[in-house]
Amino acid sequence: MHNWTASTQPLAREPSRGALAFDERPLLVFWETTKACLLSCRHCRATALPEAMPGELDTAEGSRLLQQVAGFGKPYPIVILTGGDCLMRSDLLGLTTQARQLGLTVALSPSVTPRLTPQTLAPFLDLGVKVVSISLDGATAATHDRVRGIVGHFDATITALTWLRQAGFKVQVNTTVMRENVEELADVAALMQRLEIPLWEVFFLVNVGRGIAVSAPSAAENEDVCHFLFEASRYGFLVRTVEAPFFRRVATWRRGLGEIEDPAEYFGLGPLYTRLHRRLGQLLGEPTRRPMAQSVATRDGMGVIFVAHDGSVRPSGFLPLSLGNVKDRSLAEMYRADPVLRAIRAADFAGRCGVCQFRSICGGSRARAFASTGDPLGEDPGCVFGAA
Q: Per residue in 230-243, pLDDT tens?
């Protein structure tokens, strides 16, 4: 049981001007450029396929989408070109060129396949693409290869992370937390430091796509992982989470309370935290840096919007609730006016999320709420705060 008292619960901060600006424009636009991918990962949100699906936005339609993103006005949203595998699109370089001409910042999220080479990525670096995110779902070949479904994929991923950093990209590692890899998170953190990776984005599993068949940690284990991640962020890399906005609550607590002699006892954390905490110290020693745990108050539909391969718009890639299609309506119109998104941005939630003092900086995973209840405004069962 988590031992929360008034002293452990600093008041949630009011939304900043930056948070309020999310009513007008998102911070991030994710474009699923294709569902095509040579991998078949066990937890794939996109349920990717070897070939592109019918109805995929063509080059002209993709060009119009980029113009719609620029239509939000400055400061422009950042465009993340994802998939499937974005490198499966033959027109990716041309679309990126147009995006840069429009003044948009572009990041790439490719798969580690034979298509990902220094020669393939060099023109993107020349265009000013700085950030590339690569998935690493275990600290061992046995775990990562099992998740990715390809023998030798772990070694190929470590090689790719190395040359991407050496080429001059700002490299982000994406790790999805699931029962089969959660015990290796401290070892992944050690790999991050050894490889000098500056960004670690940790995805908390939502049972969508092929992820329906994958087992997620419990809410109590999610809490343990969040406290561990805050501590991991003191070793030289920025930690962000996806579909775990409650990490911001934990980061707020930990920053406000400073050094705590025994976090496990103070917060009533479980054995998973104790194991990860101990392993982190064994591998990396005592932390010497200030925590770098990102706390920008975004959530699905608030600062984040997702455009699927066929142009349909969703609050996020993990929340399969269609808001319309960019072929018929402008992205800005849907983002600004959709009643569900407006309710999300107003923190108009049901259950525990609706009365939580941290709803402005957290608000729970809207995707997990939808996956478990069918209500995108419901409470997030992946969070323990406020539970009886």
A: 999 999 999 999 99
pTM: 0.92
d(CA 338, CA 331): 10
Cis peptide before 84 (omega within 30 of 0): yes
Question: What are the residues whose beta carbons fall under 8 Å from the beta carbon of 41, sequence distance 6 or more?
Answer: 48, 135, 137, 147, 148, 149, 210
Reduce the DSSP state of residue 13 to 3 states and report it.
coil
CA dihedral for 188, 189, 190, 193, sign (positive or negative): positive
Residues 247-274 pLDDT 10s: 999 999 999 998 889 999 999 999 999 9
Bridge partners (DSSP) of residue 107 are 80, 131
Among 13, 45, 44, residue whose Cα is nearest residue 318: 45
List C-alpha distances in Å: 82 to 50, 187, 273, 304. Answer: 15, 27, 32, 14
Alpha carbon distance 281, 298 (integer Å): 31
Q: Strands 131-135 and 170-177, how do they pair?
A: parallel
Give the per-residue SS3 of 97-115: HHHHHCCCCEEECCCCCCC
Distance CA 67, CA 47 (A): 28
Distances (CA, A) of 139 to 204, 224, 292, 341, 362: 17, 19, 22, 37, 29
**H or E stretch covering 212:** none
**How far apart are the C-alpha atoms of 281 and 170, rounded to whole Å?**
26
Q: Phi then psi for 283, rounded to 5 degrees?
A: -80, -40
Assess contact for 2 and 223: CB atoms under 8 A: yes
Q: Which amino acid is at 329?
A: R
**Cα separation, 161 vs 97, whole angstroms:** 24
Domains delineated in the chain: 24-299 (3.20.20.70)
Residue 42 near residue 214, CB atoms below 8 Å: yes
| Residue 293 near residue 200 (C-beta atoms within 8 A) | no
DSSP string, 285-333: -S--S---B-----EETBEEEEE-TTSBEESBTTB-----BTTTS-HHH
